[in-house]
Design a protein that fits this description.
Residues 14-65 form the PAS domain. It is found in: Cytoplasm. Its EC number is 2.7.13.3. It is an enzyme of class 2 (transferase). The protein has helices at 4-8, 12-24, 43-49, 53-56, 128-180, 186-213, 216-220, 223-238, 255-276, 305-310, 315-326, and strands at residues 28-32, 38-41, 66-69, 87-96, 102-111, 120-126, 241-247, 280-287, 291-298, 330-335, 341-348. With 363 residues, the protein is α+β, with helices and mostly antiparallel strands. It has three domains: 4-126, PAS domain (Beta-Lactamase, 2-Layer Sandwich); 128-214; 220-363, 2-Layer Sandwich (Heat Shock Protein 90). The strands form two sheets. The chain has a six-stranded antiparallel β-sheet. The chain has a five-stranded mixed β-sheet with strand order 7-8-9-11-10. Helix 9 packs antiparallel against helix 11.
């Protein structure tokens, strides 16, 4: 291989500039001779592959580090290999490291002028971080659509339970009351009374299920009224004293934010009621300038957070965190055995349009 001056025919100043660029640029650069043998690499390629310049230059063929192009029709034979093209401004290939790992890189290649005797230059850029980011964005969108579809389905089933099954049970209850007022024998009257009791219990159960699926107060009145309704149900069902303290402006928030906050607090309260053996539960709702901060604290037996997550018992916790992350927020759970549990939820307020179609004040 000749000197840069001989090969490129440039001035000393230009040579110095080119060498500086070649050495310091963040993208990996390598030069290949007409047979595919690597004859020059920069420091970025060494970092990217794990091979040193001495291990690559003059000893390794490009095919030893290239594991195929994404545009190849037949990767095994590389029928459309970039090496057969005079210039390929953009393509994707898989690069093999010294340890045998493979990862995607964005690449471009071009043959040098004729006097270079068929040499080719390649520029490579690591795409693994970009692909991870794209995968995370795709996963986030997929999760958002799944949660949105779930909430719509909950709303539909809740409405059908209330308007369909609930109304049918109410009609049966009225009919049984009418029958019970007639001249009945004692056995029949007792049977009607039993049916009235069973129907009444079924109505309460349907109402409870409809509320659990999607409380109408959340859509009609807003987050705080829905939380107060949830508190009453928890107090009645689990004999836990629940208190809610609010700070800041009372207003409606975007529907997605209200739903996420309600579901997160609902999950936290349900976990407390079922597992914490708590007698008291406190909720502090703070409407701050740039975020909503909700803190849920109980005096229960607590648990080891990391252990619960690693053993797969924290699926509800994952759901809480996921809902918050979709809105750019966080859920922090602090607990220890015999020290109770604290759940801290932070959701940033949108810079514009804080109040969308839910622009009424919470009552």
């Amino acid at each position: 291989m000749g000197t840069w001056k001989e090969e490129l025919g440039t001035s000393n100043e230009a040579i110095s500039l080119i060498q500086s660029i070649f050495t310091n640029v963040s993208d990996a650069i390598l030069v290949i001779d007409r047979d595919g043998l690597i004859i020059k690499v920069n420091a970025a390629l060494e970092r990217m592959t794990g091979w040193t310049e001495e291990e690559l230059v003059g000893t390794r063929h490009i095919c030893e580090i290239c594991r195929g192009m994404a545009t190849c029709m037949e990767e095994s034979t590389c029928t459309d290999c970039f090496f057969k093209q005079v210039q390929m401004p953009s393509f994707e290939m898989r690069l093999r490291t010294k340890e045998g790992k493979e990862f995607p890189v964005a690449a471009s290649s071009a043959q040098l002028p004729k006097e270079s005797n068929g040499k080719m230059v390649m520029i490579l850029r690591d795409m693994s971080a970009q692909q991870r980011a794209e995968k995370e964005r795709y996963q986030s969108k997929l999760t958002h659509f799944a949660i949105q579809a779930q909430e719509e389905e909950r709303k539909r089933i809740s409405r059908e339970l209330h308007d369909g099954v609930g109304q049918a049970l109410y009609s049966i209850l009225v009919g049984l009351n009418v029958v019970g007022q007639g001249n009945l024998s004692d056995p029949i009257r007792q049977h009607v009374t039993d049916l009235l009791h069973m129907t009444s219990k079924a109505m309460e159960e349907v109402k409870r299920m409809a509320l659990e699926l999607r409380p109408s107060a959340l859509d009609d009145l807003g987050l705080l009224p829905a939380l107060r309704s949830l508190m009453k149900r928890v107090e009645k069902s689990f004999n836990i004293q629940v208190e809610l303290h609010t700070q800041g402006t009372r207003r409606r928030y975007p529907a997605a934010m209200e739903t996420a906050l309600y579901r997160i607090v609902q999950e936290a309260m349900t976990n407390t009621a079922k597992y914490a053996q708590a007698s008291q539960l406190g909720i502090v709702f703070e409407d701050r300038e740039k975020e909503i901060l909700v803190t849920v604290v109980d005096d229960g037996i607590g648990f080891e957070v990391d252990k619960a997550l690693h053993t797969g018992k924290g699926l509800g916790v994952f759901g809480m965190k996921e809902r918050a992350q979709l809105l750019g927020g966080t859920v922090d759970i602090r607990s220890a055995p015999n020290e109770g549990t604290t759940v801290i939820v932070r959701i940033p307020l949108p810079k514009e349009g804080i109040e969308d179609d839910h622009s009424r004040v919470n009552r």
